[in-house]
Specification:
heterodimer; A: 214 residues; alpha/beta; 7 strands; B: 4-stranded antiparallel sheet; cytoplasmic vesicle (chain B); C2_domain_sf (chain B); protein transport (chain B); small GTPase binding (chain B); Rab11 family-interacting protein 1 (chain B)
């Protein structure tokens, strides 16, 4: 942390899905490597960060978590805006959460930019006995809609890391092949050329807190 | 239809219907006035002066379904073939959106010329009518309303009681009413059918139910004397909006809430109705208006009866529910201001309280006799004041109902123990209860009115009412008012003094004050000692509703008293089951109707809360967006220990 930035990119992620599918737990598991057993349900908006490495590049993931998409319309718009990656989560033990995916997907498509990478996550994979949605059908749904797909468990940590990493890889790949224009206003990616005055500084949070441990 | 057809053709058809039964089936394509493209729609149906409202179809997406009926007596003119006044033979349909705050919103209106309809030979016609804008306003697409109109003879099936008709001569159609009245007395043809289930069940409805179920209220009974009417299922659901019940004040909490919000509606309505409406409207008006100031006023004096009621409420606030079935439905936001006023919390000795109530109740029963029943010894102070005031009040007060309400309020305000007493009383004097309830509603309405209705010019009404009242009121007053007034009058004074030795007295006083105020309001000119207090409230003469029914009621009242007493006994028996400390105690004494009212009130409260929550959410929403865009770091989850508890 001697340099202003110890990462090259900031990717903005969002997590969407029905209430109770484990969005916040996924975030917490990813950022803290812990499982919140009785996670209170999220009311407002918050985000967590973690730096990962993809192809030798340090990338800071800024993962936004929210609830109440129904009640906070303005927040929701702002929430989706400029997301480079979206984790669309359902609960494999509750079919209704799976059935709602198409509406979540519609929102994501409408409110994010075309290059936003969307990964479908079937959470609570540890509850195999209560499974209500098969892996196969979800996989098919993902393929039909051009989504990445993983089943994960925020409780055990299974595939949680991979979910975030897979999306990051895809985004980075899009950057490399030029399909994602970093200069686009809402790309959801900030490039930090190792200098504080990096290119497009939008309103993204500054990374100065990195390593401060608070 | 077949009948009509067979009867023959031409305006002077063979059969002449005496009644017309109007069933409001549904509407569609209504404009959305509520959140989410919905409306809380209800329809007001009116023929001549008679007016009924349907229940509120909540959250209807432009297509509410009511299926509620009302039966109107047709002007003889129609049947005889002579040309009846157009207004008297026109069915007016008005669809409104019940607004949580402010005036109800106009959704559309339609008029049906019953003469023409009848000329068409059809005995029954179900048809969609296009809803139009108020006269003079540009037409919009307002949807349509489906109504089933059925002409009948000898309407024995009237589902609803017409409370409104009896006594008002105010309306332009007074003549018609007179005729009707005559009929009612003789035949007991209650043409009424009101439907006003909306927000808060109307007092009237309660009365009806009572009469049906318990027949407690003598006065009411007279109105509903016909058994057939009582049977009708709809009756409960409908309440007469503009009613002028003989004894009771017509105002209902629901009314206040602005069912009638639209100005246009008022215009259409008959004068009597309009008065009522105005009151209601006023009540519905915004809190922000000056009238509210009264509420906020810490001083009891400044407060009108409303304030008094509130004060009572405050003491009782924990149990909003009232005694006797006169629950006070506390009005939510305003309560705070009331609290200040509220007399020091009394732990009233239930017993003493009871006695009092009993006296009052008995008195009420005896009310017919003009004499003022001396209240319990505790009341002495009140009496002093009361004497002078009573006279004035008598003159001024056209509406006996207010008083009862006030008393009811006081009771309500009292502790649960008081409740018991109150219940007894209520039972005894169902009339009173109804009045009380009406009073309550009035009070609440007044509050609202005062708040919202600054702009409305009501003062003239009061004077008019006085004149009317003078005649009509006397009879009523004698019965009920006389008994209570002394108390009330005295009470107000005491309240002014500010310290009542007896907690009960305080409560009563507050009630009395309220009543006095209410009285004063309608009749500002009357010089009452308390006038200064009342004046603040005065602006709203509405509280005084046109209670025209006098004579018929009296007769009934006598009968009613006996029944009431028995009921009281029954109620007492029932009440004993609950300990005063039991939260259920307050509710145990409520009648079914009261409970319904309570539920409706609660629902209203909840919807208001929801609205507030919504506002807060919107605020947070916007705030969050700003944070997200400008200082998102604030939203960052703390790295180490998350805000969230429960980590493993």
């Amino acid at each position: 942390a001697t340099t202003p930035y110890n990462y090259s990119y900031i990717f903005k992620y969002i997590i969407i899905g029905d209430m109770g599918v484990g969005k916040s737990c996924l975030l917490h598991q990813f950022t803290e490597k812990k499982f919140m057993a009785d996670c209170p349900h999220t009311i407002g908006v918050e985000f967590g960060t973690r730096i990962i490495e993809v192809s030798g590049q340090k990338i800071k993931l800024q993962i936004w978590d929210t609830a109440g998409q129904e009640r906070f319309r303005a927040v929701t718009r702002s929430y989706y805006r400029g997301a480079a990656g979206a984790l669309m989560v359902y609960d494999i033990t509750r079919r209704s959460t799976y059935n709602h995916l198409s509406s979540w997907l519609t929102d994501a498509r409408n409110l994010t930019n075309p290059n936003t990478v969307i990964i479908l996550i079937g959470n609570k994979a540890d509850l195999e006995a209560q499974r209500d949605v098969t892996y196969e059908e979800a996989k098919q749904f993902a393929e039909e809609n051009g989504l990445l797909f993983l089943e994960a468990s925020a409780k055990t940590g299974e595939n949680v890391e991979d979910a975030f990493l897979e999306a990051a890889k895809k985004i980075y790949q899009n950057i490399q092949d030029g399909s994602l224009d970093l200069n686009a206003a809402e790309s959801g990616v900030q490039h930090k050329p190792s200098a504080p005055q990096g290119g497009r500084l939008t309103s993204e949070p500054q990374p100065q807190r990195e390593g401060c441990g608070c | 239809m077949s009948l009509a057809a067979s009867a023959g053709r031409g305006p002077g058809t063979m059969w002449s219907p005496t009644h017309v039964q109007v069933t409001v089936l549904q509407a569609r394509g209504l404009r959305a006035k509520g959140p989410g493209g919905t409306s809380d729609a209800y329809a007001v149906i009116q023929v001549g002066k008679e007016k009924y409202a349907t229940s509120v179809s909540e959250r209807s997406l432009g297509a509410p379904v009511w299926r509620e009926e009302a039966t109107f007596e047709l002007p003889p003119l129609l049947s005889s073939g002579t040309a009846p006044a157009a207004a008297a033979a026109t069915l007016q349909l008005t669809v409104l959106h019940r607004a949580l705050l402010g005036l109800d919103k106009f959704l559309g209106r339609a008029e049906v010329d019953l003469r023409e309809l009848h000329r068409d030979q059809s005995r029954r016609k179900k048809q969609w009518y296009t809803l139009k804008s108020k006269p003079g306003k540009k037409d919009k697409e307002r949807g349509e309303i489906e109504v089933d109109i059925q002409f009948m003879r000898n309407n024995m099936t009237a589902s609803m009681f017409d409370l409104s008709m009896k006594d008002k001569s105010r309306n332009p159609f007074g003549k018609l009413k007179d005729k009707i009245k005559g009929k009612n007395k003789d035949n007991t043809s209650d043409t009424a059918s009101a439907i006003v289930p909306s927000t808060t069940p109307s007092v009237d409805s309660d009365d009806e139910s009572f009469s049906k179920d318990k027949k407690k209220k003598s006065k009411i009974k007279t109105l509903f004397s016909k058994p057939s009417l009582q049977k009708t299922p709809l009756s409960q659901s409908m309440s007469v909006l503009p009613t002028s019940k003989p004894d009771k004040v017509l105002l209902r909490p629901g009314d206040f809430q602005s069912r009638w919000g639209d100005e246009g509606d008022n215009e259409d309505e008959s004068s009597s109705a309009s008065e009522v409406m105005s009151q209601k409207r006023t009540s519905s008006t915004d809190h922000t208006q000056p009238n509210q100031s009264n509420f906020s006023l810490p001083k009891k004096e400044g407060l009108s009866f409303l304030g008094g009621l509130r004060s009572k409420n405050d003491s009782l606030s924990r149990s909003n529910v009232c005694i006797n079935g006169n629950h006070v439905y506390m009005e939510q936001p305003e309560a705070k201001s009331e609290i200040r006023e509220s007399s020091p919390s009394n732990s009233p000795s239930p017993q003493g309280f009871r006695k009092r109530h009993l006296f009052s109740s008995t008195e009420n029963l005896a009310a017919r006799s003009p004499k003022e029943p001396g209240e319990g010894g505790g009341m002495s102070s009140d009496r002093r004041l009361s004497d002078s005031s009573t006279k004035d009040s008598m003159k001024s007060m056209s509406l006996p109902s207010y008083r009862p309400l006030t008393t009811a309020d006081s009771r309500e305000g009292l502790s649960p123990a008081n409740m018991e007493v109150a219940t007894k009383e209520t039972k005894d004097s169902k009339k009173q209860e109804s009045k009380k309830s009406s009073l309550l509603s009035l009070v609440t309405g007044k509050k609202d009115v005062a708040k919202g209705s600054e702009g409305e010019p009501l003062p003239p009404v009061s004077e008019k009412e006085k004149g009317r009242k003078g005649v009509l009121v006397e009879a009523q007053l004698r019965e009920e008012d006389l008994v209570r007034r002394p108390e009330k009058d005295a009470v107000p004074v005491a309240s002014q003094w500010g310290s009542s030795q007896n907690p009960f007295e305080d409560a009563q006083i507050s009630d009395l004050e309220a009543s006095v105020e209410s009285k004063c309001e309608p009749k500002p000119p009357v010089p009452v000692p308390r006038t200064p207090q009342t004046r603040a409230v005065k602006p709203r003469p509405h509280p005084v509703k046109p209670m025209n029914t006098t004579a018929p009621k009296i007769t009934n009242s006598s009968l009613g008293t006996a029944t009431i007493i028995s009921e009281n006994l029954i109620n007492e028996a029932l009440m004993k089951k609950y300990q005063p400390s039991d939260p259920a105690f307050a509710y145990a004494q409520l009648t079914h109707d009261e409970l319904i009212q309570l539920v409706l009130k609660q629902k209203e409260t909840i919807s208001k809360k929801e609205f507030q929550v919504r506002e807060l959410e919107d605020y947070i929403d916007n705030l969050l967006v700003r944070v997200m865009e400008e200082t998102p770091n604030i939203l960052r989850v703390p790295a180490q220990t998350g805000k969230k508890a429960g980590k493993m």
